[in-house]
Specification:
Blueprint lengths: L3 E7 L9 E7 L2 E7 L12 H4 L1 H5 L9 E4 L2 E4 L2 H19 L4 E5 L9 H9 L4 E4 L5 H11 L15 E5 L3 H4 L4 H9 L3 E5 L12 E3 L6 H14 L5 H7 E2 L1 H9 L3 H8 L3 H13 L3 E5 L9 H14 L10 E2 L22 E4 L3 H7 L7 E5 L3 H4 L3 H9 L3 E6 L4 H4 L3 E4 L8 E3 L6 E5 L12 H11 L3 H4 L3 H8 L10 H4 L4 E2 L20 E2 L16 E6 L19 E4 L1 H6 L7 E6 L2 E9 L7 E5 L31 E6 L1
Parallel strand pairs: 6-7, 6-15, 7-14, 8-9, 8-12, 9-10, 11-21, 12-13, 15-16, 16-17, 22-26, 23-25
Antiparallel strand pairs: 1-2, 2-3, 4-5, 4-17, 18-19, 19-20, 22-27, 23-26, 24-25, 24-27
Length: 647
């Protein structure tokens, strides 16, 4: 009879929950996953994406041996052979063009802290070209950093102190499931929950009220609410006068706009604005929990700043149950010096949202070699056609992958890497304050290796092995050194996940901010956000799926065509029946979809799940221009305008 065991580990994928997981193993095979009961956030349950992850581990389509493209055809090779090939290419490329002719593109396919050592390898080489900025969170970080001096968030459990919780552009039912039990508990404590989202989602079921603004116009709604509150004399002037700067300039901005125009731009009626403002000003403390869609516009940072300003006007900052929480740096408590920045003689950065055009424009030196870790840029980047063209210009591309994704297909070498269930690592969260160990539950399948093992092998061949040497446990101990004084050690984490003891439940409780003045910094001007096109009158919202994370989609899940949700009135205007076929068309291209009538979608919106692959003709990012936010170098996916064409 095969031996059975239970292994504790932590999910490393790009999700705020960073769940503690119990993996059930019989023999050497995973047979089940469940949430860890001892993790106070995970609370014994997992989302569908995690529960189904075993299918990813054992998929017949998984890459389990190194592959090299020879005359356009893939051939499996040995690890010794492929590492020698790559090391030779690195040596020659640096000798002729210098180390910055190598592009290192690292994404968030895994948030394990050991992935910081990937950057150490390139720094030891002398420094590479890196993709800078964000496809997801940069604008929100930039906006809140300008306001508070530092982007952080309230502990999730602090929501239980709130009288009102506003979920602003956040859909925890699909993207942050462990927030839902906290919302339920808060409502049981008599708190009200309001959802602000142009689309009705399953999250709506856990809310008392939903407001549906025009996409991208949330800043106007925040400004309108602040105007009603200030005009009614309901502001917390004590907080404003003692803890804030630039209020007069902000107040001039508020006075310079009328409620009618703000209502028109936001798409929210004056009566709803006044109702929401009265609710916000009258139920202190109020917590605002922001999502990621808010920042996928050029003015994304300004949207966050206008929401922050609303909280400041009412004094809902630095108090239990208050704040504007979006996220935090998942590596904040770790020692980031392991990246080895001091070894890099030369570095160069290009903006991640403008990847394709930036690679094409680079010279002195041009990009001659590229490494891709934990990412699928030929699928996830805006204007993927341009990115594909850029990668075709690169002499040698190495991709670390588990599947033959769009990016892997465009590579010269694909190296099989482990899943988080087959490796050792450590992970924090960009939502809660727990640290969790990542323990291997089974041996790596096939010939899969960890990123660290691969880069250590290359380092040995290139004469920099000493700088990368050390076991996973050794490097984890270096990474968590700042936590040792709090009792968080590798040995302690082997027993259970741990909350960082010094992590505050309420940031800025002393009302001292990390701005130069030590005060909250009001926004004093903002650009005019406009999404308008006569020929393409609908806004495309490419939301996250409940079934998969980003482009971590199994090939088998492409068997059916993608489905797009539109309001029945919109569909009728285009002559498209429920379940009918259509093309979504943007100035950049088109994609074939099946149309679902959904009364919960605003009439000016088309909603579709992001992440499907271009190799199956189902990627949507080729529809989107490569536009970057004014602050934070964020991709602006949600500024894509489209029309429907019946087929």
């Amino acid at each position: 009879m095969s031996e059975s065991k239970t292994v504790f580990t932590t999910c490393t994928r790009d999700c705020p929950d960073a769940c503690g997981i119990k993996a059930f193993v019989t023999g050497d095979r995973l047979v089940g996953l469940t949430g860890a009961g001892e993790h106070e956030i995970t609370r014994s349950f997992l989302c569908r994406k995690a529960l189904n992850y075993i299918q990813r581990v054992y998929s017949p389509d998984r890459v389990l041996k190194p592959k090299v493209k020879i005359e356009g055809n893939w051939q499996e090779v040995s690890w010794d052979g492929v590492l020698n090939l790559i090391a030779e290419k690195i040596h020659k490329t640096i000798e002729i063009y210098g180390s910055t002719s190598i592009l290192h593109y690292q994404g968030a396919g895994s948030l394990g802290a050991l992935k910081m050592l990937n950057k150490r390898f390139f720094n030891l080489l002398g420094g590479a070209t890196e993709a800078d900025g964000s496809l997801c969170g940069g604008a929100g970080i930039a906006g809140q950093t300008l306001d508070f001096g530092f982007r952080t968030a309230h502990d999730p459990r602090d929501l239980l102190n709130s009288q009102l919780i506003i979920l602003w552009g956040r859909n925890p039912s699909d993207t942050n499931m462990h927030l839902i039990p906290i919302l339920k508990e808060a409502r049981a404590n008599k708190a009200k929950v309001v959802l602000i989202d142009p689309i009705t989602t399953d999250t709506s079921r856990f809310c008392d009220l939903q407001i549906k603004p025009n996409p991208g116009m949330d800043g106007y709604l925040a400004l309108a609410m602040a105007k009603v509150i200030l005009d009614a004399g309901k502001a917390d002037m004590g907080f404003v006068e003692n803890c804030c700067e630039n209020f007069d300039a902000y107040h001039n901005v508020v006075d310079g706009v009328n409620l009618e125009s703000l209502s028109s731009m936001s798409g929210v009626s004056i009566s709803d604005i006044e109702m929401l403002a009265d609710l916000y000003a009258g139920r202190k403390p109020v917590a605002i929990v922001c999502g990621w869609g808010l920042q996928r516009y050029q003015w994304g940072a300004e949207t966050f700043r206008l929401i922050d300003a609303l909280a400041a006007v009412t004094g809902n900052i630095g108090i239990p149950g208050g704040g504007v929480s979006h996220g935090r740096d998942e590596y904040y408590y770790f020692d980031k010096s392991v990246k080895g920045r001091e070894f890099a003689k030369n570095t160069r950065k290009i903006p991640r949202p403008l990847l394709g055009r930036s690679i094409k424009e680079l010279n002195d030196p041009p990009i001659k070699m590229a490494f891709v870790n934990g990412a699928n840029p030929l699928n996830q980047s805006p204007d993927t056609h341009s990115v594909k063209e850029a990668f075709e210009m690169i002499d040698f591309v190495v991709v670390f992958e588990q599947f033959m994704t769009d990016t892997a297909e465009a590579a010269d070498v694909v190296l099989p890497v482990t899943t988080f269930l087959e490796e050792t690592d450590i992970v924090g969260s960009y939502w809660h304050n727990h640290i969790g160990l990542v323990n291997p539950t089974i041996r790596p399948l096939g010939l899969a290796k960890t990123d660290l093992e691969i880069y250590q092998g290359l380092a040995e061949l290139l004469g920099i092995g000493g700088g990368m040497a050390g076991s996973a446990d050794y490097w984890i101990k270096q990474i968590i050194k700042p936590l040792k004084r709090m009792g968080i050690t590798l040995e302690a984490l082997m027993q259970k996940p741990m909350r960082v003891p010094d992590a505050p439940m309420v940031p800025f409780a002393d009302r001292v901010f990390k701005t130069p003045s030590g005060k909250f910094n009001f926004i004093t001007n903002f650009s005019i956000p406009i999404i308008d096109s006569v020929d393409y009158p609908l806004v495309l919202l490419s939301t996250h799926s409940r079934r998969w994370l980003h482009s971590q989609v199994l090939p088998v899940e492409h068997d059916l065509p993608p489905r797009a949700k539109v309001n029945p009135a919109t569909a009728v205007a285009y002559g498209i029946s429920d379940g009918g076929k259509a093309n979504i068309v943007s100035p950049m291209g088109d994609i074939a979809v099946v149309i679902d009538h959904d009364g919960g979608v605003r009439e000016n919106v088309v909603q579709i799940e992001q992440g499907r692959w271009g190799k199956f003709g189902q990627s949507i990012n080729h529809l989107m221009p490569s536009t970057m936010s004014h602050e934070g170098k964020n991709a602006c996916y949600y500024q894509t305008t489209v029309r429907l064409e019946k087929t």
